[in-house]
Each structure stands twice: as C-alpha cells, then as structure tokens.
Write a structure and sequence with these properties.
Layout lengths: L2 H13 L10 E7 L5 H15 L6 H19 L15 E7 L3 E8 L11 H4 L2 H12 L3 E5 L7 E8 L2
Antiparallel strand pairs: 1-2, 2-3, 3-5, 4-5
Length: 164
C-alpha cells in the first residue's frame, strides 16, 4: 500500500477501539468501479481474502456488511451530474480489509462528505437506505465513519468484527 493509503487510514485507526497500528498483520484493498455490479466484485474480493486469512467461517456476516457499505458508497459515488471529476484516474470507491490478531475491519471509502444516516422510525427501517445501516449495526461488533484528511475528498465508513 502506498503512502496515500496508509495516511488515509490514520484517522480510521484513531477512530477505532485502541489498536496498535503496527499490529496489523494483514491489510488489503481493492478499487471498485462506480457501477452497482461492484457489489458482486467486493463480495468476491472479500471471499478470496477471508479464505487466505482462514476466516471462511465469517464470510456470511462480513460479506453482508461489505455489501451494504459498498452499496451505500456507490449511491454517493455514482455521478448524478456530468461534471468531470477532479481526479478521474482515482476510482471513487475503495474497499479495505484489515486484520489484527483478534479483529477484522472492513472499511469503504467514497467521495461524499455526508455522513451515513440511520433511519429513526420503524417504518423507515423498511426503506432500502435505512435498512443497510441497521444490518451493519446488527451483524458487526461496531461501526463508524470519518471524513478523509488532507487533500483526499470524501469519507471512510468502517465496521469491526471481533474474531473469537
């Protein structure tokens, strides 16, 4: 991972439960195209990565959360207008999977500065957008988000899984 990637994740690490960043045993990421088919690609990437890390038994929960985070990110990453991007070479959505000894974090970066919003009322939970964060909250051991620092635009939304 280049310097851009590691500095991008600094605030992510700060926003997580106390973890020594040097204790990350594995960290991978993949760029996702701004198309809804990217959700399938993110699931395949997650399956392959968890297989390498011998965490296949966690795939169902992690893949569900990854799917929701990527879907939310794509909602913000897909251009609603035809304005050119400042950095067209940089894919708008990126999935990071990081593994420590006792935990796994999946983080999704997107170009929007708006924080994710869970729906308040019961009837809103049946709405597509509100249900996603409800599922993330239900299937992970914690989640959060933060704006990107420095010259990077957008935010990162992350979810934490404890590994028993």
């Amino acid at each position: 991972m280049g310097t851009n990637g590691s500095t991008m994740l600094e605030p992510l690490r700060q926003g997580l439960p106390p973890i020594d960043p040097s204790a990350v045993s594995s960290s991978v990421s993949c760029a996702l195209p701004a198309r809804y088919e990217a959700v399938r690609g993110a699931r395949q990437f997650t399956r392959a990565t968890l297989g390498q890390w011998e965490l296949d038994h966690r795939f169902d929960d992690v893949a569900l959360v990854v799917s929701e985070l990527v879907t939310n990110a794509l909602r913000h990453a897909l251009p609603s207008d035809t304005a050119p991007r400042e950095n067209a070479k940089e894919p708008p959505v990126r999935l990071h999977l990081m593994r420590w000894t006792g935990r796994l974090v999946c983080a999704v970066r997107d170009p929007s500065h708006d924080g994710p919003m869970a729906r308040e009322s019961e009837e809103d939970f049946s709405a597509e957008s509100g249900r996603g964060l409800f599922l993330v909250d239900s299937f992970s051991d914690g989640w959060g988000w933060h704006p990107l620092a420095g010259s990077l635009r957008g935010k990162v939304v992350w979810a934490l899984f404890r590994l028993g």
